[in-house]
Each structure stands twice: as C-alpha cells, then as structure tokens.
Amino acid sequence: MEKNLIACFEKDLPKDRVRYFTKDILIEAIKAAVREKRNRIISQEHIDDLIDNKPYIIIKSEHHKKDEMRLWIHFDDYIDFIDVSILRFESIPIGAISENNCVIPEDPKITESKRPYPNGREWQERVERKPVRRQYNFRKEVLEAYSFQCAVCSVSNPTFLDAAHILPVIKGNNDTLNNGICLCKNHHIAFDNNLLGIKPNGDIIVTEDSGIKTEFNKMEYPKNKDDYPSQENLTIKFNDFLNKNK
Ligand SMILES: [Zn+2]
C-alpha cells in the first residue's frame, strides 16, 4: 500500500485504522444501493473481478445527503464510490494497519455483531427523500383540485389551506388525490380530531359542543370528478367519527 494513499484515509478514524469492504460486503451494499435507489453505484463488471476476502480500503467518507454517506473505495488500479445509509456505513469492518502497511482484518465476530440483523438477513433502509417530494405534490394537487378553497367554508387564501388526508398516510394509505380534501387549518384540525365529520355523500356534520361552524351543509367537491374523495376512505373515516362521538 502506497504512503500517499494512507495520507488520505478517513479523518474520523485513528491513523492506524481503516474501514474496508470485502467482495461479499460490497456486493451486499451494491444490492442495497440499487434497492434503496441511491444515486451512484459501482458497476457490476468491476465487482466480478474482485478477489474474495481481500480488503478494499475506503480512503474517504463524506456525508453526502441526509442519512447517507458517500464512500470512496480504493481498488487495485482505480478509485470508485458508493452511497450507503449511515446504518450500513457503521456496520462496515474496521481493520488495523500493520508495520508493513498491510490491513489486519477485523474479527468476523465483531463484523457480524455490527449488523442490524445479526442472523445474516439483509435489510432495507427507508429512503426519506421520496415521501417529502410526494407530500409536496400532494398538497399542490389537492389545493388545485379544489380550486384553492376549503371544502366546508369559503376560506381561499392558500396560506390558510391544507391538503388534509382522509385516512392517515401512516396507516398505509397513499398520498393520492382521492385520499385528500382541501380544508382550511381550523377545519383540518377539526376533521382530524373527529369534531367535524364528512359523510360519504358529502354531508357535513359537526359535534354539538365543539363550537365548530361550517358555512356549507354539504362539502364543495373538486371541479373534476376524477379528483373526488374516495367513497371508501370517507366511509372508514366517517365511521371513526361516529365511534368517537358515541
Ligand atoms: Zn374551512
């Protein structure tokens, strides 16, 4: 190993320690990068030529995106990089450098113990970028569909408007237009807390002691019929409203 290579080792490690990939661990990381739709990956052809159990040293690591690291790997005659999650980064073996500049591999038991699933099961990281983007589109699509007006009152200033989910996304319901209703902030809170209910036929019900008022008795629908709220979701949500207000 050349001296100049050691000079550019990862800054956060002691000078006599290096993180490294073996062929197996790298293949796992590449498969994960494909699955998790990370931006840049090492090509498959390069991988086929690698030698089993040889340590391929990470010469540089940097925070690339939120919860993502970009790792620069020194192969025999080239340097390439891969993006991995922080969790995967932390599971990568760390070896010591011997007097004659060889890598002394980490005890396989230690490497195994750093895996989030020690039984050898492969794991998938959640990539957080996509939902953020979807949320943004969801709001835009819902507000546009309802012509920038609350479905139960005449508030039409976008600052006070929300794209309310009929059923929460967290329960596996997606961010589709048909799971959304445009509501002003007050009516959104009332809807989420079952102080305001919308029947599957569009009738608006408010609980007596909530003090909530609506201007309409029936919700204002989007201009386009395809954008109407899902009957099924409204039914589930309205049953929830009835249960909470028994
Ligand atoms: Zn409103």
Walk me through the structure.
With 246 residues, the protein is an alpha+beta fold. The chain folds into two domains: 3-113, no CATH class; 130-244, no CATH class. It has helices spanning 3-7, 23-35, 44-48, 86-90, 108-113, 129-145, 185-192, 231-244, and strands at residues 17-21, 56-65, 68-74, 79-85, 94-97, 103-104, 161-165, 180-184, 196-198, 204-206. The strands form three sheets. Strands 4-3-2-1-5-6 form a six-stranded antiparallel β-sheet. A two-stranded antiparallel ribbon has the order 7-8. It has a two-stranded antiparallel sheet with strand order 9-10. The chain is elongated and about 80 Å long. 27% of the residues are buried. The structure holds zinc ion (ZN). The site of zinc ion has 8 residues, from strand 8 and helix 7.
By oligomeric state, this entry counts as: single chain
Rg is 27 Å
Q: In this structure, how is the largest beta sheet organized?
A: 6 strands, antiparallel
What is the string of SSEs from the N terminus onward? HEHHEEEHEEHHEEHEEH
Average residue pLDDT: 84
Q: Which parts are unreliable, with pLDDT below 50 for 5 consecutive residues or more?
A: 1-8, 128-132
Distance between the termini: 74 Å
Strand segment tally:
10
Number of domains: 2
* SS content category: alpha+beta
The total of helices stands at 8
Shape: elongated
Portion of residues within helices: 25-40%
Beta fraction = 15-25%
Strand order across the largest sheet: 4-3-2-1-5-6
Bound molecules: zinc ion
